[in-house]
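Fold sample X.
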Amino acid sequence: DVLADEPGRITRLHANAATFRRELAAAGFEIMPGEAPIVPLMVRDEAKAKALSHELWMRGLLVTAFSAPIVPRGTERLRINASASHDARDMAFALRTLIECGRRVLA
């Protein structure tokens, strides 16, 4: 069992999710509160959520956009999935890319 063999994975997973939340909020993005490894970045516009998801895909990140009917209109968001497998370099790339693309697309 992976969790029994690598107990630090859960700690790393929660640390990575907390890093996404903290750094994206500090950069001015609206992040839904919580501690889960799924980090919702609120966009509140279907076209912008889809455009940002596409831009991130083109830069090498898979971040899914959610819009109606999955979520109510006005609560469109991106779903960022933290992983215990993300190392410091992965996190830095993801955060840098999310912030750069987010500022451009959501401006």
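Fold sample Y, listed below.
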Amino acid sequence: GRRRRINQKGPTMAQTDSHRIVITVLGKNRPGIVAGVTCVLSEASVDIRDITQSIIEDIFTMTLIADVSASTLGFSELQEALSAKGDVLGVTVEMQREDVFQFMYRL
């Protein structure tokens, strides 16, 4: 028989909301990580839309989806503020636009 080819690509850039970002946090677990990262977002008027976190043994991981449409900081400024807070907390904080994330990982 003939095989049908299924398009498994994620949404195109035009189909995604460019005001949304994906933030990932990774590092050794310690108190204050969630508070530190969410405080930076709150101070910049960034709206957290979804958040998940887990701790496996002593490894902390957190992923956030946030809306930056009302942000008081530009994309690069927010990225720098999160990275600086990560340095203080001893974790790696990465941020990218959701449409870029979707395109890169074909979710």
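Sample Y note: The longest helix spans residues 75-89.
Also: Residues 4-16 have pLDDT under 50 and may be disordered.
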